[in-house]
Backbone:
């Protein structure tokens, strides 16, 4: 199901299983994942699956925040270390509310020992890119900033270290439809500019098709990846593509497969 060609791999899950009750039951059972490295252009992988099937768990593995009960998670064919350039945007707002927007965005550079002048300058560049110029001195908290603005902060924060792998866990799930559409465009712009390998979780099939190069679908627990759709739309996309017949066919195909997975075993 996963492409396995001559290209080197960037992420691999090998025979991964997850139990949270000492092996009595399994949330994830013997799943595989193989993402090839395309450093010059990046790639956009979307994961779809019912609530509770283990999508956030898989992102936490790749972020190095959690180890599976069984199996291996590899980046560039090696176990994960803190040297891997992986960033994550969480399902819930994850900015630090007692710090300003500027300090939140610059935080990753502070840990790297970069001096204040340079880190603020680089943080301001990203703050401008995500459309938050003028808000940098505000505290990163609701309702000082709206939900959409807080996700912009989280995205800027995740991009500042120029990650090789960007993990995004339903980043737009809580946003109104207009903000969500704007955020999709913002994310694509950042992706074209920095071309990381993105692994993005969503429940929205149209969003999945619009953003993805590849869509991987998980069945319900005990879960694993069971379907793969290659989204053969052009690399550069804009909203007009959503009106094309082929886009609609892809949405319908993914929807049918998801229904098949849910009504299956
Ligand atoms: N630390 C934990 N202890 C016990 N059970 C856990 C723990 N973390 C996750 N689970 C369980 O594992 C399953 C998968 O959780 P996970 O958060 O990965 O699902 P998900 O696919 O991201 O769901 P959603 O779409 O609702 O975000 C769920 O049943 C959850 O309750
Ligand atoms: Mg989740």
Residues:
């Amino acid at each position: 199901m996963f492409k396995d060609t001559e290209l080197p791999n960037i992420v691999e899950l090998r025979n991964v299983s997850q139990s949270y009750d000492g092996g009595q039951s399994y949330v994830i059972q013997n799943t595989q994942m193989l993402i090839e490295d395309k450093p010059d252009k990046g790639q956009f992988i979307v994961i779809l699956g019912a609530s509770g099937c283990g999508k956030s768990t898989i992102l936490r593995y790749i972020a190095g925040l959690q180890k599976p009960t069984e199996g291996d998670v590899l980046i560039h064919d090696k176990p994960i270390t803190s040297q891997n350039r992986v960033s994550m945007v969480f399902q819930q707002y994850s900015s630090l509310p007692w710090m300003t927007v500027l300090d939140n965005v610059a935080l990753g550079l502070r840990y790297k020992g970069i001096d204040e002048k340079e880190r603020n300058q680089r943080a301001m560049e990203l703050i401008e890119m995500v459309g938050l110029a003028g808000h940098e001195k505000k505290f990163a908290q609701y309702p000082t900033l709206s939900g959409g603005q807080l996700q912009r902060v989280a995205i800027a924060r995740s991009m500042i270290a120029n990650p090789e792998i960007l993990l995004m866990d339903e980043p737009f799930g809580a946003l109104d439809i207009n903000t969500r559409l704007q955020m999709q465009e913002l994310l694509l712009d950042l992706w074209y500019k920095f071309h990381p390998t993105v692994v993005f979780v969503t429940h929205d099939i149209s969003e999945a098709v619009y953003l993805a190069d590849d869509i991987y679908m998980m069945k319900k627990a005990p879960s694993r990846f069971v379907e793969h759709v290659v989204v053969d739309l052009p690399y550069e996309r804009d909203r007009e593509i959503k009106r094309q017949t082929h886009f609609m066919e892809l949405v319908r195909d993914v929807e049918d497969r998801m229904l098949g997975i849910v009504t299956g075993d």
About this structure: The radius of gyration is 19 Å.
